[in-house]
Amino acid sequence: MDLGEFETDNSVSCRLSSPIPDLCKNEDCCLGIDEAGRGPVLGPMVYGICFCPVSKKEDLKALKVADSKTLTETERENLFMKLDEAKSYVGWALQILSPNTISNSMLQRSKYNLNALSHDAAIGLVRYAIDSGVQLKEVFVDTVGPAEKYQEKLSQQFPGVEVTVRPKADSLFPVVSAASICAKVARDHAVKGWKFAEDLGDVDTDYGSGYPSDPKTKSWLLKYLDPVFGYPQFVRFSWSTAQTLLDTKAVTVHWDDDEEDGEKAAARQNNTSVLSYFSRKPSHGAHPREPHRFFSERKLQSVDTL
């Protein structure tokens, strides 16, 4: 699977897709939706759709697609190749949600939780299929939140399409299993081939499963925690695991607010004001420090006067 477009800039989300089979533009089609990487603190979450003509359901089933979680990595890769080879009647599309996108969305002022982000990704993919000419009649999807509410939401978005939302849909409907395989293969490739924008030297890529409970993942998070700038963009910094480590292991600063002057409040709490970072001068004879990439990327520089 070629993720070149995402790898060019993995700080933002990206949509990838196969060609639309002509058969899908001329016959009634079914479509499955599933995701990979919802729970990990590392790497992207990938939403996938797979679609084929209703008349080809048995052909899709004959490929022996199954829930990606029950398959080995090699089995998933082989099944994805089979799906790709069946391009005369099978199509797929992916929405890769970067860790940066996930965290920025969840921490924005207006509430936008992971369920809402997932719903919007799924809706966007279904709309993409319809806009691309797929004659969509049936949609099958694993539940995110209450199944009834999700099904009603999708039905309202796509009138005339029969929507079925079921728990464990990836093990019940082959077209959802196929979507699950596409999403999981894409996430595996994205995690393995992650290009770090940050200068971390020879990065240790033995970060385990990426799930917060994994000891290897915990160890990696501790190793690559910058005490001032936090984590590389590979980490979902909105996850409680990352937040807890930042709170306990990173440098504590006091942010200015309207209630109390930042410098005075910091001094009272025996703390460091964030403003002091900008005003700090190099000691006599010392070479000025190169600015962190956070500032150079944003064209920020210190000034003495306004």
From TrEMBL:
The keyword Signal does not apply. Catalytic subunit of RNase HII, an endonuclease that specifically degrades the RNA of RNA:DNA hybrids. Participates in DNA replication, possibly by mediating the removal of lagging-strand Okazaki fragment RNA primers during DNA replication. Mediates the excision of single ribonucleotides from DNA:RNA duplexes. It catalyses: Endonucleolytic cleavage to 5'-phosphomonoester. The lineage of its organism: Eukaryota, Metazoa, Chordata, Craniata, Vertebrata. Manganese or magnesium. Binds 1 divalent metal ion per monomer in the absence of substrate. May bind a second metal ion after substrate binding. One of its GO terms (biological process) is DNA replication, removal of RNA primer. PROSITE patterns: RNASE_H_2 (PS51975). This is Ribonuclease. Its cofactor is Mn(2+); Mg(2+). A divalent metal cation binds at D34, E35, D142. SUPFAM superfamilies: Ribonuclease H-like. It comes from Chanos chanos. The keyword Cell inner membrane does not apply. GO terms for cellular component: ribonuclease H2 complex. Residues 28-251 form the RNase H type-2 domain. One of its GO terms (molecular function) is RNA-DNA hybrid ribonuclease activity. InterPro entries: RNase_H2_suA, RNase_HII/HIII, RNase_HII/HIII_dom, RNase_HII_hlx-loop-hlx_cap_dom, RNaseH-like_sf, RNaseH_sf.
